[in-house]
């Protein structure tokens, strides 16, 4: 059994959570160009209003919210239901990244990271899934990271949050495949965004947010579950996962100069 993709985005109702910058902004703009109806969500209302100008009248909804606030998410979804009657694609891009290592580990930052990066997507999925199950159709796409594949430097909270997203998506796919609801697990490598601008180390195979958006929308179009990119980097990290730990840690220390 293979899950379905989206033949075209024209007229599709898409909720992009995390649309105010980076990958989310690039996806939102690309979707608007392809004729989708896009609900734009993030905490920064002024940025969302600017992005909405890329669409025609009645093509966008601006729904400011914080993904750690369940009431705001519920109100946002209710607005979409009242206006458009439902969602064809939930594209959850929102997340936070603060570099952390053991010598500067901050449990409060870790808790905020897990709340935004793991519980945030779970809250959104819990909202849209019942209606998608009733319709026997719909798409859930969640942006994780190749940092979730295995332990990497400066990702003491971010890495575990993205590893959990991989497991969450795998479970969703298993449960939803027979129902007609498609799941897309998105694992980008290094993408030039506000978040990665914090990094003070070389980022191999760095790509633009626009390139990332194209990979994501192409993968959803094809019905892919495991959307990872850029392949030259993500495939290398997938290979590292199967190596014995002594070899894995030696390679990471050898090639990650931080």
From TrEMBL:
Xref: InterPro entries: NAD(P)-bd_dom_sf, SDR_fam
Keywords attached to this entry: Oxidoreductase
Any coiled-coil regions, as ranges: none
UniProt KW Transcription regulation keyword: no
Pfam family, one: adh_short
Gene3D superfamilies assigned to the protein according to its UniProt record, in alphabetical order: NAD(P)-binding Rossmann-like Domain
Similarity annotation: Belongs to the short-chain dehydrogenases/reductases (SDR) family.
Protein name in UniProt: Oxidoreductase
Taxonomic classification: Bacteria, Pseudomonadati, Pseudomonadota, Betaproteobacteria, Burkholderiales
């Amino acid at each position: 059994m293979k899950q379905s993709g989206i033949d075209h985005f024209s007229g599709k109702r898409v909720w992009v959570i995390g649309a105010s910058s980076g990958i989310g902004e690039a996806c939102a703009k690309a979707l608007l160009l392809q004729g989708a109806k896009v609900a734009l969500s993030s905490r920064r209302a002024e940025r969302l209003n600017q992005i909405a100008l890329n669409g025609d009248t009645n093509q966008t909804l601006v729904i400011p919210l914080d993904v750690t606030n369940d009431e705001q998410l519920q109100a946002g979804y209710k607005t979409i239901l009242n206006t458009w009657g439902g969602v064809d694609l939930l594209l959850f891009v929102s997340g936070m990244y603060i570099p952390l290592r053991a010598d500067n580990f901050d449990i409060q930052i870790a808790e905020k990271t897990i709340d935004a990066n793991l519980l945030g997507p779970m809250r959104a999925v819990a909202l849209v899934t019942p209606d998608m199950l009733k319709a026997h159709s719909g798409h859930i796409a969640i942006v994780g990271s190749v940092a979730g594949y295995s332990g990497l430097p400066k990702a003491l909270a971010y890495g575990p949050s993205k590893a959990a997203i991989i497991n969450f998506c795998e479970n969703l796919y298993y449960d939803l495949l027979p129902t007609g609801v498609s799941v897309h697990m998105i694992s980008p490598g290094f993408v030039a965004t506000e978040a990665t601008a914090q990094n003070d180390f070389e980022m191999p195979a760095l790509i633009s947010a626009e390139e990332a958006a194209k990979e994501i929308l192409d993968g959803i179009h094809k019905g892919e579950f495991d959307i990872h990119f850029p392949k030259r980097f993500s495939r290398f990290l997938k290979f590292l996962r199967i190596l014995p730990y002594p070899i894995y840690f030696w390679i990471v220390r050898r090639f990650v100069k931080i």
